[in-house]
Amino acid sequence: MKPGDTFAHVGSLIASMMFVWAMFKQFFPYQLSNQIEKYTQRMVAVVYPYIQITFHEFTGERLMRSEAYSAIENYLSSKASTQAKRLKADIGKNNQSLVLSMDDHEEVADEFNGVKLWWASGKHISKSQNTVSFHPISDEKRYYKLTFHKSNRDVILGTYLNYVLKEGRAIKVKNRQRKLYTNSGAYWSHVVFEHPATFQTLAMDPKEKEMIIDDLITFSKAGEFYARIGRAWKRGYLLYGPPGTGKSTMIAAMANLLGYDLYDLELTAVKDNTELRKLLIETSSKSIIVIEDIDCSLDLTGQRRKKKKEEEEENGKDPREKQPGVQERDVKSSQVTLSGLLNFIDGLWSACGGERLIVFTTNYVEKLDPALVRKGRMDKHIELSYCGYEAFKLLAKNYLNIESHHLFGTICELLKETKITPAEVAEHLMPKNSYVDAELHFKSVIQALELAKEGARLKSEEHA
Ligand SMILES: Nc1ncnc2c1ncn2[C@@H]1O[C@H](COP(=O)(O)OP(=O)(O)OP(=O)(O)O)[C@@H](O)[C@H]1O
Ligand SMILES: [Mg+2]
To answer: Any transmembrane segments, and where (predicted)?
Structure first.
């Protein structure tokens, strides 16, 4: 018989005794029944020196699924697969593997710092059915029960439970299907996020790439550090550079590296600061909030457009008259302000627990309001620039699986004096059919570089 079974039997025996006592205690004088109860409790504590904690699947008035329950479920999945006799299996949320968990009324043992403890799964089936609904409502209320010796109370409550929650959450992140959220107005909708970009395939200076990866990994593991120094676990990145240099690709690579969800926030679709706050508060932990082309969004949403509207109103014109087809919502969108965004990043935002990255992208860093880019607000500024030789070699390897070629020297020289984006190089390296003629692709790159060089020369002559 397993220790857990023993507890269950002793537990139910004691429960029966308590039930009988509750029926008969009314026949005893109050003082006496009080004394009996006190001593019974002490005896129970001696006979049954174990503590039990129950974690219900649904909690609160609105019966939300308990985060603790799902973390425990994930934590126990690895124990269950080796110990439990009855398991439940389902396709993991990443759609790739089977995830096993313990079935109802199963038990598994665990050990932590030399302390033994037991987990049991169970369910209550409620008999009341007072709602009429077309949708079947499950009356099963599942729970996990943890049993441990009372002498280990401090270890379990102080360290073990935190450890279980942390491990469980980590397993959940690993197994989950990641999402890409987009907003239309004040609501997020999502699709499955399956972008193949990784830092390995991102063409940029290898040293800088290494630094960014280090920075991201350090951030993702720094929860305790942020808590110790009393700062919100957030980090801001500003990615800037010309179109086609890999800003959006890098964001996808960041999400893939850390296993985070992506929130692609379209500021121009947000009515005002209140809507913005609502959207940001709704983002979940372990996510990247992206505002692309921040300069354009703020042109539409900042004070400038508001002023224009006011001017037109002063001239006696309805600002909407000049913009046929513009919806009322677009006109109203001017109410999201830079200060609203900044206040949220610095202030209230800190109250949302859990790690979040916020990433802004722009093609024109010099156009941005200094308030937005000042140090301390955006922690890291990353420039994605034109294609260098190292970046070209990586693209050649990725697209054509070629690491050296006699035309590399010419390309290297041309790249030093010509600006071409990785997106354009990639276009010339993209195989058109199953037969790959590398020479042809590299010649096409050289041609594009020479054209760009000639274009730049003519432009500079024009300006001279
Ligand atoms: N550094 C890079 N490494 C690998 N591929 C790249 C890189 N830069 C661009 N590309 C390729 O070019 C395409 C366009 O890149 P991306 O959308 O990331 O550019 P961007 O900097 O976000 O441009 P924009 O400023 O217009 O939004 C991508 O699909 C990607 O395949
Ligand atoms: Mg982009």
So the answer is: 6-24
